Amino acid sequence: xxxxxxGYQTWGHRTLQALLDSVHxxxxxxxxxxxDHAYEKIWSDSVADLAEEHGVPxxxxxxxxxxxxxxxxxxxxPDIIVANNWRTWIPPRIFDLPRHGTLNVHDSLLxxxxxxxxxxxxxxxxxxxxxxxxxxxxxxxxxxxxxxQEAVPVGPTDTTTDLFHKTVDLIAPVTIGALDLIASxxxxxxxxxxxxxxFFHKRSTEDIRIDWxxxxxxxxxxVRAQSEPYPSAFTFHxxxxxxxxxxxxxxxxxxxxxxxxxxxxxxxxxxxxxxDARTGRNHGLAxxxxxxxxxRELGATEYFTSMGGYLTSRP
Length: 315
Prior knowledge:
This is Methionyl-tRNA formyltransferase. It comes from Streptomyces phaeoluteigriseus. The chain has helices at residues 9-20, 47-53, 67-76, 92-95, 118-124, 160-168, 171-183, 216-225, 300-303, and strands at 2-7, 25-31, 58-60, 80-84, 102-106, 114-115, 129-136, 146-153, 199-200, 234-237, 240-253, 261-265, 268-271, 283-291, 297-299, 311-312. The chain is α/β, with parallel strands linked by helices.
């Protein structure tokens, strides 16, 4: 089939590479301009550079809503548009233009985790698996019929970086497998159960601020979810920002007030956690490695030279 690709960052790059390696013909690529936004500098392989290396025409747009772009798309005469990690709304006159419409590739197991940062949110929420879905685009966010979907398990120590590498390897088989189904003449696909849908927003500073009222298991997953190269989860100690680079759930149970710097356990220092910590039924978060405001990385037992005092959500 003749394909136009909309995409950005490594997700778009992997999608374009899969298309270039397939029997399908890439007629045009549309991508976003380079950005200095913190999250957009992560996994930032250039779609434009890859397209140009293979002699594929490229258009750079923040939004695909101008008449020039629409005319270029009509001239390209695509059988289908394939989109992955396109960051702005694609209007109906574009996604309905090709003979087979538009196939959107999303890094979650739809209908759950539509929207943004699905891997981070899924890890924080303790999901047992994550994956990639190719679905037919319609006028509702990530809601169209599912053409192909594949999952991978979430391991007990996986970080979001680990999950990124697991799922990015699914892009090629999911995308090309979906295109092959469409090219074969299939027109009926799996409808999403909208009662199971969930929608998530982009991550921001507030989303990585530690709230010691959370249970320790949730906080441990937050730390893993905000692994390098993502901005680390953080708290405050004596009024200064302290990033938590590694932590585990404590073996013992600790009672008291959330945020209390309490006890050395193995290589970690246990912080009391959970809104009902006063009951003494909760495990704590055993921090093992931190980064200080001036950029020093230290083991927790080296940083916390004495017990007592509190970690707080605000200075």
